[in-house]
Specification:
The chain has 167 residues and is of the alpha/beta class. The chain has one domain (26-164): Glutaredoxin (3-Layer(aba) Sandwich). Helices cover 33% and strands 24% of the residues. It contains four helices and seven strands. It has helices at 5-19, 67-83, 101-110, 152-164; strands at 37-41, 46-48, 56-62, 88-94, 115-121, 132-136, 142-147. Mean pLDDT is 86; it is low at 7-25.
């Protein structure tokens, strides 16, 4: 089989990116290094992926109008509260720009993990779905990328093994 010269021009950079461990898509892909990010929490704290080295990181995209988001947030709150000391970091990132800060503050005040509405980096909701959740291991590798809500059992199954790994 021969490959046309024009196809080689396309395939060579793609192969090089895959060999170097770059994520093939626009959003984080399981099995690949997590793209760098910076987010600003509602309490004005700037957080970067580099600061999270050695921790398991959960980034959950949500919206105030999203019923599945509202259903999974209390479960995530409880899990984070119980496992933060084991090296878990979790951030809820709203996909909405126009929600009044007072409304978001009400949500932020009852959760044990920080919320943000500003995040830079190659992240976003998966296929424009909310909730969308990324789980990054202690080595900075994306281990899970899920669109749709987690059940309690699924969330524990995804995170417990990662938290059990040595930092």
């Amino acid at each position: 089989m021969t490959i046309a010269p024009s196809a080689r021009l396309f395939l060579a950079p793609l192969a090089a990116a895959l060999l170097l461990g770059a994520s093939p898509g626009k959003t984080p892909t399981p099995g690949f290094a997590a793209p760098a990010f910076t987010l600003t929490t509602f309490d004005k704290r700037k957080v970067t992926l580099a600061e999270m080295k050695g921790k398991v990181v959960v980034i959950n995209y949500w919206a105030t109008w999203c019923a599945p988001c509202k259903a999974e947030m209390p479960m995530m709150h409880r899990y984070f509260k119980a496992n933060q000391a084991r090296g878990l970091e979790m951030f809820g990132v709203t996909t909405e720009d126009s929600v009044p800060k007072a409304q978001l503050k009400k949500v932020s005040d009852v959760l044990s993990y920080p919320l943000s509405n500003r995040m830079t980096g190659n992240y976003g909701s998966i296929d424009n779905a909310v909730p969308s959740t990324y789980i990054i291991d202690r080595k900075g590798i994306v281990r899970h990328a899920k669109k749709g809500a987690y059940t309690d059992r699924e969330f524990k199954a995804a995170l417990d093994p990662l938290l059990a790994e040595a930092p």
